[in-house]
Amino acid sequence: MAGLNRYTFGSALALMVAIGWPTLATAQDGRLDVADSADTAWLLAASLVALLTVLPGLALFHAGRVRAGNAVSVLLQVGAVAAFASLLWVAAGYTLAFGETSHGFVGKGNAWMLIQLGNVRAGTGVPESAFVLFQMSCAMLAPALMTGAWAGRARFGWVIAFTGLWSLIVYAPLAHWIWGGGWLATSVHALDWSGGLIVHGAAGISALVVALLIGPRRDPGAAAAHSPSLALAGAGLLWVGTLAQSGGFALTATDDASAAIIATHAAIASGALVWLLLDRVTGHRPGALSLALGAVSGLATIAAGAGYVSPGGAIVIGAIGALACRLASGIMRKRIGVDDTLGVFAIHGVGGLLGALLTGLFMAERVGGIGYGGAGGG
User: Fold this and answer.
1) High-pLDDT (> 90) share of the chain, %
2) What is the predicted pLDDT for the residue at 24?
3) For every residue of the chain, which 3-state class applies, written as one string?
4) How far apart are CA 79 and CA 347, in angstroms?
5) pLDDT at 110
6) How many domains does the structure of the chain reveal?
7) pLDDT, tens digit (0-9, with 9 covering 90-100), for 23-44
């Protein structure tokens, strides 16, 4: 009987350790580092939700806004770009973005093909492999966003080659400058919670440059959205995926994650409703496309500050973002004449850059933000 009691106690103790205590990360470099079970589970869940929703959502959001004859091409480009970006992230992108910092411009090549990952990502409680997976969702999204700028007038091979090079020579270094401890993070203390600058801003500006270089379509007036309902469904998936990304950037299963999710949701909802209202007051008929565009403008604008501002501040940021992005869309199309097919610069570029500026205002403690002394990295 005593032996049975000892066996039962030992089994219970082992179960408690397995469930409630931090777990040992898989050893890849011989060191015995400890990862937090709850934080790891949260980051993996956020990664999977983001991967499941963000890219399909973007593909549908873009495909629903082009002519029916171009929809399949848009879906193909988004999927292929995401797949190629994933391979490049594993091969070289991650180590360029998050490798050991030397001169502050690009990470050291200490993790090519992910062969020298640490057991736990420095400064966190999660395995570095989980961190790689989560960051991959952003590395895939950024180049895929740009496909909307040249929809209907770019060859498939050129798209893959360009976005692949862009991922390595633009996205990875920029991610290192801010998220990887590079010069912008250390010298000017730049903040970007979930990609307002690194994902949306960079993709938007690059899309504008490419649109200018490629030139306009032969018949730019024939670009009416063939399926607003499809675009709205895509925006809905982007909405959910962005919540997962925003919460995941906390890297902990704490109130930091839930606060970022609430702020992101509030900004997206605000942007969606403001765009509908603007269409109404300007004599346009509000519809599914209005809601979709407003939601995406809101998520682009809040990305930089989701973890730093209050829910009230996020509502204002989302509203301002929708107003600015809608104005930019009209100006780019009617006055400047740039043929950015799906308004990637107007939505993501303007939204991301404006959101970064607004973060500096709304993170102040007097308006409910975390304050300028309590800001950490995204």
Assistant:
1) 77
2) 40
3) CHHHHHHHHHHHHHHHHHHHCCEECCCCCCCCCEECHHHHHHHHHHHHHHHHHHHHHHHHHHHCCCCHHHHHHHHHHHHHHHHHHHHHHHHHHHHHHHCCECCCCCECCCCHHHCCCCCCCCCCCCCHHHHHHHHHHHHHHHHHHHHHHCCCCCCHHHHHHHHHHHHHHHHHHHHHHHCCCCHHHHHCCCCCCCCHHHHHHHHHHHHHHHHHHHCCCCCHHHCCCCCHHHHHHHHHHHHHHHHHHHHHCCCCCCHHHHHHHHHHHHHHHHHHHHHHHHHHHCCCCCCHHHHHHHHHHHHHHHCCCCCCCCHHHHHHHHHHHHHHHHHHHHHHHHHHCCCCCCCHHHHHHHHHHHHHHHHHHHCCHHHCCCCCCCCCCC
4) 21
5) 77
6) 1
7) 444 444 444 467 899 999 999 9
- Is residue 12 in some structural domain? no
Output the average pLDDT for the chain. Answer: 90
The enclosing domain of 139 has a CATH number of 1.10.3430.10
Q: Is residue 10 part of a domain?
A: no
Q: What is the pTM of this model?
A: 0.89
Q: pLDDT tens digit string along 314-363?
A: 999 999 999 999 999 999 888 887 889 999 999 999 999 999 999 999 99
Looking at the DSSP assignment, which residues form a beta bridge with residue 23? 35
Please report the pLDDT score of residue 374 as a whole number: 66
Residue 16 lies in a domain: no
CA 121 and chain centroid, separation: 20
Q: Which domain holds residue 334?
A: 36-367
For residue 319, give the nearest of 283, 363, 351, 284 by alpha carbon.
Answer: 351
The terminus-to-terminus CA distance of the chain in angstroms comes to 55
In a domain, 333, yes or no: yes
Question: What tens digit of pLDDT does each residue of 210-230 get?
Answer: 999 998 887 765 557 899 999
pLDDT computed for residue 375 by the predictor = 63
Contacts 24+ apart (CB under 8 A), 288-293: 288/228, 288/229, 288/231, 288/232, 289/65, 289/225, 289/228, 289/231, 289/232, 291/232, 291/235, 292/61, 292/64, 292/228, 292/231, 292/232, 292/234, 292/235, 293/235, 293/325, 293/326, 293/329, 293/347
